[in-house]
Amino acid sequence: MSLEREEPTHFGAGPAQLPTEVLQQAAKDLLNYNNLGLGIGEISHRSKDATQIIESSKQNLKELMNIPDTHEVFFMQGGGTTGFSSLATNLAAAYVGKTGQIANAGYLVTGSWSLKSFQEAKRLHVPCEIIFNSKDFNDEGKFVDIPDESLWEDRVKGKKFSYVYLCENETVHGIEWNQLPKCIVDDPNIELVADLSSDILSRKIDVSKYGVIMAGAQKNIGLAGLTLYIIKKSILTNIEKVDDTLLHEFDIPVTPIAFDYPTVVKNNSAYNTIPIFTLHVMNLVFEHLIKKGGVEAQEKENDAKAKILYDILDAYPNFYNLPVKPNARSRMNVVFTLKKEGLDEKFLKDAAERKLTGLKGHRSVGGFRASIYNALTLASVEKLVQFIKDFAVENQ
Amino acid sequence: MSLEREEPTHFGAGPAQLPTEVLQQAAKDLLNYNNLGLGIGEISHRSKDATQIIESSKQNLKELMNIPDTHEVFFMQGGGTTGFSSLATNLAAAYVGKTGQIANAGYLVTGSWSLKSFQEAKRLHVPCEIIFNSKDFNDEGKFVDIPDESLWEDRVKGKKFSYVYLCENETVHGIEWNQLPKCIVDDPNIELVADLSSDILSRKIDVSKYGVIMAGAQKNIGLAGLTLYIIKKSILTNIEKVDDTLLHEFDIPVTPIAFDYPTVVKNNSAYNTIPIFTLHVMNLVFEHLIKKGGVEAQEKENDAKAKILYDILDAYPNFYNLPVKPNARSRMNVVFTLKKEGLDEKFLKDAAERKLTGLKGHRSVGGFRASIYNALTLASVEKLVQFIKDFAVENQ
Question: A40-289: which CATH architecture?
Fold first, then answer.
């Protein structure tokens, strides 16, 4: 049975392409891991081999992201959506633990994922408010940019928040925070909670600025079904200070046990059965990235990929439309439309003939979206660039 | 790269051994599914291929379990522990939707898993009570049997419960309900909610008797990280009748959105990103079982496996001890201890020399446990039987 394949050029937004050598190793390990005579998915999550994978994943991530000792790493089942729920209830509890009071969580809404996360906090009766919705800051009433800090910092300064939430990269609309808002990270009383599901390990970040980082695996780091968390240890301590009775008095919901951060950390991510195969794939992605030169090398490649793609789209301003304002353009999801009507299907068909797939835009936005996560090589993006050029020349 | 392996003889309680041909196919599909040039874990969960896997898994399960039209099948991230939480809040909501009132959920506690499930409902502030704890019905004060219905049916008859919960097979203690309690299944006002994580598809059952069946994948049906649910459609309708404000008035927690059963069903198990590789493995297990002759053939083999294993242990009553009373013995997890002290390590070492692994008992019980789920062949169990006999003869 062959495990060879031609390098795919799939630009889907996720679950996304993974490095072929990672999948080949994972496929082998699915049948026989470490010469155990047994596959990696068939062993106890409390066995020596499983524990070693958990430890190794933590260590590799700490090395890749330069995670300080003030922060802890853990893994949980689920994805971003389960993260929206667990972040809201755990962080609300942490604030009660720290202050003996409640306060609203503040959400910076820049696209549909941050909006969904806010809606989930509200649905669960976690006190929360929208600090700004970027739709309100442009004439189009759309998610097309991130308003300058000067326009909304007054809504933050001097106020108390249980935490402030943002989604670093909005995959649907192709919008990315190119730098963190200073009024949040410079305020020592605010814990920044960030969804990095679609840009984790794509560029260097300063972990010390975050209270919690949450990232679903299925874009840059693995298969669907697993989420990684990096959390400030003091937040864990604050959650532990609160007993369920106190939470109940404050009308804040108790987090389901499998998603209670202190419980998961105390049990080294194996309170319940961690999907060890999925974690192993994630760890293979980490090892692959370390071998490639780490996040620094990856960032350089990602910048180059995004540059040539935006450059070619910008080069045909009468043919391609880029809805997102330049300062908020995502380096991971490049969203564009055709100015001429009636060509959309042809674009996808012609692309598919060159084996360029996954380019259809999200159903709520339309047009096209090229997702260029870590596993997409510069050579693959160059093929797409060539096609975008050829298509414009042939059809304009 | 070889995907061959010697048939393992691993008796771990889970994550457990899977059929080798299932893993071989899964390994191939991890790199290139259906000649897409892309692996099954790399495609959108809303793509045609992913949808086809979801539909096929549902159909295959319906065929295997003869699921009536009154019931719906869906899949969710997580395992049993996430199930404990989501069952409690969804079913409490369903009762409010049906009756406009609240009532306690009733738990039949026969081992540590049903106890954990009760504790989670309580922790989440879902109204609940223990109908019986089997520890209270024997002199040892241990989980070693299931009390006869006549001893506890008075606690059920004429009373109202939002649902009644049981765990069909307790993996830690090796205790199994060999038939469902009549006082529960014959009461049309009671919804039976059952955890079948460790005995699903191991024997024929009458699905119409259950309100909800929940089963984590990692014992009989696949890899960790996915749980299947079979639910009476009327329960879904009842949950939908309740809005969050009413729930809040009744002080019942809102279920996190990724675990809200009606939302998941309406979105065909893809409200959030379903771990499609893990579901594919589950579906391959279903197909493998259909080819083997379905649940009927599997049940016959499982009965034979359990019989020869218990028979050989019973044949050496001075050497082996079987803590569980015969009428509650599990056909999936055979728990035993050695009467002589100081031989435990030797037992495991000698077994390992014959490549018989995973036999150590749960840390809370000690001794040994042979888990003989569907993927363990009769031939593998015969090897274990031979070893158990030889060990007794050599060491008694």
Answer: 3-Layer(aba) Sandwich (3.40)
Measured from the Cβ of residue B390, the count of other Cβ atoms closer than 10 Å reads 12
Tell me the C-alpha distance between A131 and B292, whole Å. Answer: 58
| Cβ within 8 Å, pair A26-B30 | yes
Angstroms from B80 CA to nearest CA on chain A: 8
- What chain A residue is nearest to B356 in terms of C-alpha separation? A37
* Chain segment A10-37, per-residue pLDDT in tens: 999 999 999 999 999 999 999 999 999 9
Mutation test of the interface with chain A: which of B18, B42, B86, B125, choosing the one with the most A Cβ atoms within 10 A?
A: B42
For chain A positions 211-270, those within 8 Å of chain B (CB to CB) are: 216, 218, 223-226, 244, 248, 253-254, 256-259
3 state SS of A72: strand
CA-nearest of B356, B365, B355, B363 to B330 is: B365
Nearest CA in chain A to B10: A38
Asked if B219 is an active-site residue, the reply is: yes
Domains B40-289 and B294-395 equal at CATH topology level = no
Amino acid (one-letter) located at B68: P
pLDDT in tens, A163-202: 999 999 999 999 999 999 999 999 999 999 999 999 999 9
Spans of chain B below 50 pLDDT: none
Where are the domains positioned within chain A? 40-289, 294-395
ipTM over 0.95: yes
From chain B, the residues in CB contact with A271 under 8 A are 81
- CA–CA min distance A157, chain B (Å): 31
Domain A294-395 sits in CATH 3.90.1150.10: yes
How far apart CA A200 and CA A228 sit, in angstroms, is: 10
A294 has a pLDDT exceeding 70: yes
Place of tokens 């020349």: A393
